[in-house]
Structure formats: C-alpha cells, structure tokens
C-alpha cells in the first residue's frame, strides 16, 4: 500500500521518549491540527533533525501518514524558540503551561484550529522575545484561548443575567463576574485592579497590564487558572509549576535539619 | 492465550521498557527452553540487584555500599562537581577519562509537563554539598535539550550567588563528522562556543 506523504508547518508542544533513541512528538499543525508523530533516532547525537524538534519550536515538516502515529521524515526550523525560552526559568515554566493548555484545548483529530494555533505561536514568540513578563503572557494566552474556545469569563457584564457593568463578585461556576442579585454562594471578591488586569490581557492592552501590582497579578492568575480548569474539567498540571515571581536563590537547609527528615 | 506460569512470565516481561508482546513471548520461550542452571542464575542476579544495589547517600549514584565507588575514592578531587541527570550519564563522562572530580545525580530534569519540578530532584542535597565549602566549580552536564537547558538555567541561578564558578558542557560538532551535515542549531552553538587556538 502506498503511504501518503504530507507537509505542514507546526508547533512542537512536547516530546515523549520512545524506545532507545526515538521520540513521540506532540505537534500542532497549522492545517493539520493536533497530531502525534514518531521522530526516529532523534535522541542520538548524530541525528539530522533532533535539535529542530525541541519543544516550543515552529518547524516545517514532512511526514508519512500513519494510522495512529505519523512518522517525521524531514524537518526545517522556521523559528526555534526553545533555547531562548529555556534560558529563562520563568519563560520555560510559562511555555510548558501554554503547551499543555494547547493540547487540552485541541483534540487529536486533525481538525485545524487556526486561531488557537496563531495564539500559541504568538505566545511562544512573545516569551522568546522577552517583551513582557512571562506570567502575563501566559494569562493573556489562557484568557484569549478560552475566548476562542467559547469559554471566556464574563468581565464586562453579569455572567448570569447579562447586566452590563464592572461587577465586584467573581464565580468560576457561573462563568465570570456576577452582579449583586445573581451572586451565588462561594463567589470571590477580587480587587478592581485584578478585574482591570484580566480585561487588559484579553484586549491586548499591555500598557495597563504591565502597570499592575504583583498582588493583582496573583489574584488574576488564580482566577484565570481556576476558570480554565473548571471548563476543561481536569487540571492543567504544569500550571502549578509556573514561576510567577522572579526566581531568587533560597538558602539550603542546615545539615542537621535534613538529617532529621 | 497462554496459561499459568508462562502467561505470568509473558505479562511480567511485557511490562519492561522497550519490550512489546511479541518480544515478551520470544524471551519467555527462550527462558522455557534454557537450562535450569542458567535460569537460576538469572533469577539470583535479579533478586540480588534489588536487594544490594542502592543509591549513594552523597551523590545519588548507584552503589552497593552507603557511598558509591567514586565518592569513596580519595584520589578524586572535591573542587569539581559534575551535575548529571541520571546515573548512566556518569558512565558516559567516566568513559572520557577527562574528569577526576565528583558527581551529583539529580534524578532527572525539570519538566512541568511531566509533573517534575525542582523539589522532585536532588537539588536541595546539591546545595547542602556546596555549602560544605570544598567545591570551587560546578559543571552542569544535563542533557542538551530544552528540559536540560532549563534545569541548567535554574541551577545556575541557585548556585551563582554562592560565589562558585558554574559551567555548562560545550555543545558543538561531533568529532569525525562533516561540517556540511551539521544542523543549524548545533552549528550555531559551535560558533558560540568557539575557542582561540593561537
């Protein structure tokens, strides 16, 4: 049987080890949607394209179609963001959360999701360029990808009755901010600055977003993560590893305290 | 398909990494056709490796005593510590014959996608070793992939303020290869890491 070759440009979301020297690569193709492919021998130092199939890279690929898994035959790097992202720990943890979210939002069914693809590509590029703080890039990505998927939290009107206005309460279960009359039990009351930050990140108002205080950023990221995971109906594991503040060296414990453990 | 002990053996072999159902079946029938003495020896070795091999309390390498052979060796210097991901990486570095310092095994690399964060690795133990004061330089020899680079970035940030030299293994062209076949990433790294010869 003749096996079909096809070509697409794709983002490398993650890799899994397979056998002695192979990788299974989780790819997000511009035209092919999300798919998985085997990259043979890429863990060997002699591999011709192992370096190009690193996570967070934008690559042009040729693949052989398979029943469950395709096979990568050729790779050309378009923009390999992996190294610039890995050079900064905050960027790396944010990029991991973006990759996992992209995987969760797009089923592995070869259906193109062009808007999520473009958002993911833009997020990797923004992280690699270092133009904005990585946790803000991550939250902007989460908010916008939820909007594309139809789960955007209501931020300018009540999520229950649709009453316009900047309401003070937020309910993940209700779908965003809620007015005084619709507010369900267990709603939170974030600061107005946190709401303002979420609106700015959704609309791309980076001037407002970068001017917000760390406390508002923490509040907003907590709400965004909770909203995402509620609608996905499962947790996004890498969100808990995101380095939200600048990494500072911590003093190692004294020997005695470790001996006690 | 099979019954009793043979089915159990095929199932157990099939759980090993890289062994599929066909390979498991082939190995099981090989064991069935082997001499009893050979099979007893294999069973003894499997039991012994689990009972006697442990992890070195200092560096995390595999050892048969409390400390591994390298940590016990008084001829090796304490000034250099080479940080690797797995014990098998130590074998690769030892084969070079270039390194006479000590090792520290992290037990993996930071990979949030697989649920591995800094607290899941032996980074705390490394910091304690460095605080003891004998070390002058830490060589980070994590894998040259995204996870390995991110782990190196994290370690450099943690160790840097202690005033120690932190270095990373060079990346570049494989010895014996042709330049025209090098990919752009590797060749780019080779340019970055070039050295003066005169």
Please, could you describe this protein's structure?
The complex is a heterodimer of chains A (261) and B (198). Chain A is α+β, with helices and mostly antiparallel strands. Chain A folds into two domains: 5-80, Nucleic acid-binding proteins (OB fold (Dihydrolipoamide Acetyltransferase, E2P)), CATH 2.40.50; 87-241, Recombination protein O, C-terminal domain (de novo design (two linked rop proteins)). Helices cover 37% and strands 21% of the residues of chain A. Chain A has eight helices and seven strands. A five-stranded mixed barrel of chain A has the order 1-2-3-5-4. Chain A has a two-stranded antiparallel sheet with strand order 6-7. In chain A, a hairpin with a 3-residue loop joins strand 1 (5-18) and strand 2 (22-29). The model of chain A is unreliable at 252-261 (pLDDT under 50). Chain B is an alpha/beta fold and 198 residues long. Chain B is 44% helix and 11% strand. In chain B, helix 1 (4-14) crosses helix 2. Chain B folds into two domains: 9-52, RecR Domain 1 (Helicase, Ruva Protein, domain 3, Orthogonal Bundle); 70-168, Dna Topoisomerase Vi A Subunit, Chain: A, domain 2 (3-Layer(aba) Sandwich), CATH 3.40.1360.10. In chain B, the strands form two sheets. Chain B has a four-stranded parallel β-sheet with strand order 4-3-5-6. In chain B, strands 1-2 form a two-stranded antiparallel ribbon. Chain B is globular and about 65 Å long. The model of chain B has no long low-confidence stretch (mean pLDDT 92). Chain B is built from eight helices and six strands. Classes of the chains: A alpha+beta (261), B alpha/beta (198). Chain A binds chain B through residues 14, 19-20, 45-46, 48-52, 54-56, 77, 80, 82-83, 85-89, 92-93, 96-97, 99-100, 237-238, 240-242, 247, 249-250, 252-253, 255, 258, and chain B through 18, 110-113, 115, 117, 124-125, 127-128, 130-131, 145-147, 149-150, 153-154, 157-162, 174, 177, 181, 183-186.
């Amino acid at each position: 049987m003749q096996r079909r070759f096809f070509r697409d440009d794709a983002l490398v979301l993650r890799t899994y080890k397979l056998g002695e020297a192979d990788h299974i690569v989780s790819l997000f193709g511009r035209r092919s949607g999300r798919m998985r492919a085997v990259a043979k021998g890429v863990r060997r130092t002699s591999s011709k394209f192992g370096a190009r199939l690193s996570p967070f890279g934008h690559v042009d690929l040729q693949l052989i179609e398979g029943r469950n898994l395709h096979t990568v035959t050729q790779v050309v790097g378009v923009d390999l963001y992996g190294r610039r992202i890995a050079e900064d720990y905050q960027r790396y943890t944010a990029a991991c959360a973006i990759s996992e979210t992209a995987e969760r939002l797009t089923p592995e069914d070869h259906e193109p999701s062009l808007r999520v693809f473009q958002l993911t590509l833009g997020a990797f590029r923004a992280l690699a360029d270092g133009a904005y703080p990585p946790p803000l890039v991550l939250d902007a990505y989460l908010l916008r990808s939820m909007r594309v998927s139809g789960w955007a939290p209501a931020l300018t009107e009540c999520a229950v009755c649709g009453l316009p206005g900047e309401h003070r309460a937020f309910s993940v279960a209700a779908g965003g901010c809620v007015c005084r009359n619709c507010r369900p039990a267990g709603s939170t009351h974030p600061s107005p600055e946190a709401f303002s930050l979420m609106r700015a990140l959704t609309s791309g108002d980076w001037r407002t977003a970068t001017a917000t205080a760390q406390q508002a950023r923490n509040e907003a990221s907590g709400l965004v993560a909770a909203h995402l995971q509620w609608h996905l109906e499962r947790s996004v594991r890498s969100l808990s590893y995101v380095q939200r503040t600048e990494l500072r060296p911590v003093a190692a414990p004294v020997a005695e305290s470790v001996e006690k453990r | 398909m099979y019954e009793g002990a043979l089915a159990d053996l095929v199932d157990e072999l099939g759980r090993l990494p890289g062994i599929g159902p066909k390979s498991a079946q082939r190995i099981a029938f090989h064991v069935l056709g082997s001499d009893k003495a050979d099979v007893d020896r294999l069973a003894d070795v499997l039991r012994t490796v689990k009972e006697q091999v442990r992890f070195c309390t200092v560096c995390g390498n595999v050892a048969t005593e409390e400390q591994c052979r390298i940590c016990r060796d008084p001829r090796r210097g304490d000034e250099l510590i080479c940080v690797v991901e797995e014990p098998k990486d130590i074998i690769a570095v030892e084969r070079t014959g270039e390194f006479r310092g000590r090792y520290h095994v992290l037990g993996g690399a930071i990979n949030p996608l697989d649920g591995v964060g800094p607290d899941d690795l032996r980074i705390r133990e490394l910091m304690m070793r460095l605080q003891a004061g004998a070390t002058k330089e830490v060589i980070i020899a994590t894998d040259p992939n995204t996870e390995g680079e991110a782990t190196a970035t994290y370690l450099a940030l943690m160790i840097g303020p202690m005033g120690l030299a932190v270095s990373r293994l060079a990346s570049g062209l494989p010895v014996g290869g042709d330049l025209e076949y090098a990919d752009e990433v590797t060749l780019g790294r080779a340019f970055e890491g070039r050295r003066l010869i005169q």
